[in-house]
Amino acid sequence: MRIAVAGGTGVVGRYVVEAAHQAGHDVVVMSRRSGVDVRTGDGLPEALKDVDVAIDTTNAATTNRAKATAFFTDVAGQLQAVGAAQGVGRLVALSIVGLERVPGFGYYEAKLAHEAALLAGPLPVSIVRATQFHEFPAQVLSRAGAGPLAFVPVMRIQPVAARAVGEALLGIATGPIETTIEIAGPEQKNLVALARAIIRKRHRRVVVAPLPVPGRAGRAMRTGGQLPSPSARLIGPTFEEWLDGGDLATLGG
After folding, report:
1. Which end of the chain has fewer CB atoms < 10 Å from its terminal CB, N or C?
2. Regarding beta strands 189-190 and 26-30, do their DSSP bridges make them parallel or antiparallel, or are they unpaired?
3. pLDDT tens across 190-205, in order?
4. 85 three-class SS
5. What does the pLDDT look like over 211-220, one tens digit per residue?
6. What local confidence, expressed as pLDDT, does residue 147 receive?
7. Residues whose CB falls within 8 Å of the CB of residue 185, separated by 6 or more in sequence, listed in order
8. What mean pLDDT value characterizes the chain?
9. What pLDDT, on a 0 to 100 scale, did the predictor assign at position 92?
10. Is 2-251 a CATH 3.40.50.720 domain?
């Protein structure tokens, strides 16, 4: 099968690409680094030629509502229009669990617009909503530091490994068409506790300060608005198992 991966060099996309190669598929990595801009469409017709399924793991480089919405809807429109013209069979897109339950958070509203734009196109689409990644606390720490102090939002989450999400995306892309799927890790966790565990693993002298996010969005984050539904598919490893593996080292820091 010929599979194109938008955002194929990103946190999840690279694991989709790795899993697809290991399974013997013909893989097209779509990123600006490879000469394909899925937002403007530059290089996209050539990349989608003879592709059976395209997997969208793109991520906006901003949490600003308007800018992120413009990015995601542009990408969705290009993948649908160019994909249909090139005879792509279907699209699979990565999204986030709990979008409707965290009101007022601009990035989540942009992802809702992303889903709607994808579903409005001619190609069949599978939306795969995942919980936050095991990698997420390290990403928060990388931008939350102020010397020896790191401010980490208070959030209840049920994290899943990015590698497992990438493998799940490939399985969904090569299986029967499904409309919406939720995937999550096996255990509920507190983001602050996970950040502290990463600091201990890295032997850093950093104090994590819990930061309650204000407003309706912050209240939803604290009270489980980002937790999966009972129908979600739970996939390992646990956070502790992931922390003892080697994927944390690939994030740097």
Report:
1. C
2. unpaired
3. 999 999 999 999 988 8
4. helix
5. 999 999 999 9
6. 73
7. 131, 134, 158, 159, 160, 161, 164, 234, 235, 236, 238, 239
8. 95
9. 98
10. yes
CB atoms within 10 A of CB 124: 14
pTM value surpassing 0.85: yes
> Which helix or strand (DSSP H or E) is residue 65 part of?
helix 65-85
Q: Tell me the HSE value of 2 on the side-chain side, using a 13 A CA sphere.
A: 12
Distant-in-sequence contacts of 106-109, Cβ < 8 A, 24+ apart? 106/63, 106/64, 106/65, 106/66, 106/68, 107/60, 107/63, 107/65, 107/68, 108/217, 109/65, 109/69
- For residue 226, which of 99, 141, 110 has the smallest C-alpha distance? 99
Gyration radius (Cα) of the chain, Å: 18
- Per-residue pLDDT, 86: 98
Contact 232, 183 (CB under 8 A): yes
Contact 166, 15 (CB under 8 A): yes
Q: Alpha-carbon distance 229 to 129, whole Å?
A: 11
> What residue spans define the domains of the chain?
2-251
How many residues belong to the chain? Answer: 253
